[in-house]
Design a protein that fits this description.
Number of helices: 5
Order of helices and strands: HEEEHHHEEH
Distance between the termini: 34 Å
Largest sheet: 5 strands, antiparallel
Oligomer: single chain
Length: 179
């Protein structure tokens, strides 16, 4: 069963993919991308299919082929962008006038703003119980920087903190520092 649906004017990401909301930073035949206006880290971007689909598992063969092309293209854009200038401009963008700016202000205060990313987290909240808030597929490309969290081990496993720390259950002689 597929959850692909026609574009709808009530869907924010359908408006984005049509070029009607937020400036695009990347496009290919199946995807568009933009910098998130509620950034967690400098360069936080969203990769959105042009077609209204709800789940990553509903992408057709063409979209699947274009997915990694889009991730690589957005990574190049992130690494070529003056992110401090980007967020200073977001502070005064007319279309963001009514939106809260605390995420932008927080990113502007980060000590590693201006540094190249040290790594990336690529994520997708595929379903409401996974944390998705807009029912149009969107992948997160989140640049990571040394020191952005105290201990990054476990990565996205930490969305369920009580069950994420597999290091504490290590058996003697078994290395757990390779994950």
């Amino acid at each position: 069963m597929t959850s692909a649906q026609p574009a709808t004017p009530n869907c924010y990401f359908c408006r984005v993919s049509a070029g009607l909301a937020d400036p695009l930073i990347y496009e290919n035949r199946s995807f568009v991308a933009l910098f998130d206006t509620n950034p967690v880290n400098p360069g936080h971007a969203l990769v959105i299919p042009r077609r209204h689909v709800v789940s990553l598992f509903d992408l057709d063969d063409t979209e699947q082929a274009d997915y990694f092309d889009a991730l690589h293209g957005v990574r190049r854009v992130i690494e070529a962008t003056d992110l401090e200038k980007l967020y200073r401009n977001m502070r005064v963008r007319e279309d963001l006038r009514e939106r809260p700016k605390d995420h932008i202000d927080n990113v502007l205060d980060l000590p590693f703003l201006g540094n190249p990313p040290d790594a990336y987290t690529v994520g997708n909240n595929d379903g409401r119980m996974a944390g998705r808030s807009i029912d149009h597929l969107h992948m997160i490309l989140l640049p990571r920087y040394a020191g952005d969290v105290e201990d990054p081990r476990g990565g996205i496993r930490n969305v369920i903190p009580d069950r994420a720390n597999y290091h504490r259950h290590a058996h003697p002689g078994v290395r757990t520092d390779t994950a």
